[in-house]
Q: What sequence folds into this?
């Protein structure tokens, strides 16, 4: 059975206390830039001046993300959703001990609509892909760094637990492709715990850190519930890839 450890606090204070070499991969969703946070508006009570600010946690810059990922010290992959404003600075100056490999994208088929109607809505998010120097292996074969998945808030995949919650099916795909059974995955920006839930379902161990108590409690509840259940492995597909029953249910709704 998968094991997990959860910490409520500042990741820069907690990460250095973890056992060296204990993390195989980082899979996380870092906060975005001040400009992006300010532009994220709720569709509720939308008026002439726009909706209320939808994101209730601080923005960060690329140097902060670099600092956090540098102290995670994974043995293999480091995968982080990033603001596109942060992508180039992280490519030019990667986190310590990591090489920038590729900039991937998450294609959203059901993005938040542009309610003003005067411009296109944003239908993608950037994913920075790093690896420690040396030989690289992943479970995605010759596939591209493009992940097509609906959103949690605007899709059919359950209620949203967090303003920027990533869908469980999307996180499951990343975990299946960049880690192996028994690996330990760390998420220094745990949020409401989708990475941890996917790890519990897929036979990976998990370490999660979240600074805001209200989201930590949500993550703790979700991960504890997932850990009590048997891993939701489905049969291996014709292409050799594992899928979870949760992923298959999402696929049926597409």
A:
């Amino acid at each position: 059975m998968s094991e997990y450890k959860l910490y409520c606090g500042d990741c820069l204070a907690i990460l250095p206390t973890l056992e060296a070499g204990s993390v195989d991969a980082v899979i996380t969703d870092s906060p975005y830039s001040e400009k992006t946070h300010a532009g994220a508006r709720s569709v509720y009570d939308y008026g002439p001046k726009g909706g209320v600010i939808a994101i209730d946690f601080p923005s960060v810059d690329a140097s902060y993300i670099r600092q956090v990922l540098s102290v995670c010290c994974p043995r293999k992959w480091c995968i982080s959703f990033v603001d596109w404003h942060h992508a180039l600075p992280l490519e030019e100056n990667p986190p310590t001990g990591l090489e920038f490999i590729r900039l991937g994208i998450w294609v959203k088929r059901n993005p938040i609509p542009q309610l003003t109607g005067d411009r296109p809505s944003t239908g993608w998010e950037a994913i920075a892909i790093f690896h420690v120097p040396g030989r690289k292996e992943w479970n995605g074969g010759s596939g591209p760094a493009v992940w097509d998945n609906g959103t949690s808030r605007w899709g059919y995949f359950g209620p949203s637990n967090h303003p920027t919650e990533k869908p469980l099916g999307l996180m499951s795909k990343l975990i299946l492709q960049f880690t192996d059974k028994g690996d330990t995955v760390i998420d220094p920006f745990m949020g409401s715990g989708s990475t941890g839930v996917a790890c519990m379902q897929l036979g990976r161990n998990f370490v999660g850190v979240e600074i805001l108590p209200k989201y930590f409690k949500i993550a703790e509840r979700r991960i504890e519930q997932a850990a009590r259940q048997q891993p939701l492995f489905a049969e291996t597909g014709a292409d050799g890839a594992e899928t979870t029953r949760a992923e298959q249910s999402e696929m049926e709704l597409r």
User: Anything to note?
Assistant: Residues 213-228 form the longest helix (16 residues). Residues 41-52, 154-159, 234-240, 249-254 have pLDDT under 50 and may be disordered. The domain at 4-253 is CATH 3.40.50.150 (Rossmann fold).
